[in-house]
Amino acid sequence: MILAEKIMKLRKAQGWSQEELAMRLGVSRQSVSKWESMASMPDLDKILKMSELFGVSTDYLLKDNAAEEEGCAAPLPEEGPAPRPISLEEANAYMDLSARCHKFIALAVALFILSPVPLVAIAGMAEYGRLTLSEDVASAIGLLCLFVIVAAGVAILLPSGIKLERYEFLEKEPIALEYGVAGIVETKREAFASTYHSGLVVGIVLCILSVVPLFFCMALESELACVFAVCLLLTLIAVGVYIIIRVACPWETYEKLLEEGDYSREHKAENRRNDPFAGFYWCLTTAIYLAVSFYTGQWARTWIIWPVAAVLFAALLALRRMLRQPR
Question: Model's pTM, two decimal places?
Answer without folding.
Answer: 0.63
